[in-house]
Amino acid sequence: MKATVVTIGDEILIGQIVDTNSAFIAKSLDKIGIEVYEMLSVSDDREHILETLSSLQNDSDVVIITGGLGPTKDDITKKTLCEYLNDELVTDPLVLAHVTELIEGFFKRPITQINKDQALVPSKSQVLFNKVGTAPGMWMEKENTVFVSLPGVPFEMKYLIENEVIPRLVSKFNRPYIVHKTIRTYGIGESLLAEQIESWEDNLPDFIKLAYLPSPGQVRLRLSARGTNEGALYLELDRQVEKLHEIIGEAIVGFDDGETIEVVLGKLLKEKGLTLSTAESCTGGKIAATLTSVSGSSAYFTGSVVSYATETKVNVLKVPQELIDKHSVVSVAVAEAMALGIQQLMKTDYALATTGNAGPNKGDADAEVGTVVVAMATPNGVYSEEFNFGQPREKVIDRAVTKALEKIYKEILKN
Amino acid sequence: MKATVVTIGDEILIGQIVDTNSAFIAKSLDKIGIEVYEMLSVSDDREHILETLSSLQNDSDVVIITGGLGPTKDDITKKTLCEYLNDELVTDPLVLAHVTELIEGFFKRPITQINKDQALVPSKSQVLFNKVGTAPGMWMEKENTVFVSLPGVPFEMKYLIENEVIPRLVSKFNRPYIVHKTIRTYGIGESLLAEQIESWEDNLPDFIKLAYLPSPGQVRLRLSARGTNEGALYLELDRQVEKLHEIIGEAIVGFDDGETIEVVLGKLLKEKGLTLSTAESCTGGKIAATLTSVSGSSAYFTGSVVSYATETKVNVLKVPQELIDKHSVVSVAVAEAMALGIQQLMKTDYALATTGNAGPNKGDADAEVGTVVVAMATPNGVYSEEFNFGQPREKVIDRAVTKALEKIYKEILKN
Known about the structure:
The structure is a homodimer. Chain A is of the alpha/beta class. Chain A is built from 16 helices and 17 strands.
């Protein structure tokens, strides 16, 4: 079974907006075992749309189209689909009543011809009733292909996918089961990880595919199993994850897309009733911002001192000036003094500190661009490690944030 | 001239990640007058890739491909491109030296065969040297089409587009002139802005297009002029911007894509020799992180206290406990005390403070979800303003950050 997702709209082709609809549709189809073979973005242009439709005819079982259903002149999807299907546009009375109610009852505006035209649909289409907007979705069949047309406004598209499109696809098509499992690893680079798990990967059964999804400081591994016996797929995935755990257990932090390091760390701190604070120089507050992006983080995170200036390190964090003079601001000694300083100031069980040079220039710190020292103050003492995260600046900061969170998570887990 | 952008990767087709690369590439091409005719996302599948390449052969002048260049087994773009071009993979000595230096010199790991294979490129390709990663970009020509292959990691792709691909395209192809001008506005919502500038917009000449690019707390207006006389385009754009300035001058903060509020504010502080510190509760360090994302920010930004816990407000920022008891943590009184507290602690000319409830729950603060107070301590006194930024959590935080930076920028500008 083959599905194609088509986005129509000039704003995507000039890069003005990022197409997020296609990912949502793909994820929804994937959940019911329908594979998206290809995604396409085309312009609001009659010939381009017609060409695209006929190239997909009988090649895709389902074509899901978003965009171009608005009321303005540049929206030509409906008219063009109708032309492609040799059909004519007729007014759907239920949609017209709904549009009238929305415009006159809700927005309190007189209804115009442009509004009324929203209720026009190809005569042979099935209307996908759009409760949350004025443009209806449409389900059309031609030979061996189903064409579904949806508005491009994300929440209207989502409403129609969930409430109208998915139920119809489920009842129309027989599909295999697809089960996914994501494994979040931290602290091992992609190629090193690939080497460590090579023989495990080589021995995966044919019906399981593995993908590597790297981002700064972490790699997500995604296993996808496909088959007709759903229970067997789950069992086999669990078995494979268990094997993987034996090889790289230390690097595995979570299993779900939502289980980011800040979420997993937050859960652990809450569970153990522990508190955390941070003293940040080169990360500039981003560790704090990442921790507080999790709702409920006030239960374990007391706060941070972003000590960008040397005086702040001395005056607020009580780092001895002699230490800075002797070792420079980017040093193990200063990082550890910062961690101890914030731990004491905020009276927390654990504390993290960072100092480094994120670049692009060497600055007065005398440390190479990309050098970062991460220190942890724990109830049992203070530890630190020096890294070099290269460049550019943005990457150095992101990697330092991820590394700091990873280190403290693994430290607390040990105790 | 016709360009196509192709993304390769199963993770996109199952909706696990949103493709942001294509929009970046389209925007970059658009700036130099190259129109993207279509965007495609295809799977990590040999036949599918080959089919796609041959369907674009001689139909597109340029095909820009991202993804599938990683070191792992699911990455097959390079091998498949090589097969398509009837070429063979050879080791590029410069790339090998760079990869070796990165792995051994920088990551301090022994180099492996997988790493070395990153230096393999089709013998007839031009290498686009990737300073910021291990996978090189490649420029290949076949008949009337240029194929460019880039890594999918966004910052590597961006580096190569800006430094290698765009300059080569500019020198290879004749294009009409497209001149863009971006106007950054802060503090007026999109529809109100549209109303205020309606008659200006209606009177724009035909060869100038206007786009609205809204994001939390700001709207960028982009003017694009297209024609054969570059000088005339610049002149007309300047004329139009001047007119616009007469209408909404107060809201305009910068004119360039790089002139974000944090960059413009930083320049202003530097120019005037002033310093800034922040005390953040609901923004959790994100104002500091935003300020320090600008290199050289240590010249004017001394640091921040992220006072997530009430005790931190009292102990570190010296906010009187009675004030909190009387007015609650989310209040004008507490926000102003925080601003004064950090101004004094860090001895800065200006200080910003935020306190609020970012949600999703009401919590113990008793303030409605979305409520944020922004306070500014200046050399002449302390000022504050209360906002409601709605929800979700992420949007509340982002809007609070933008609003705080906007307020202090406009305040300093006045003096």
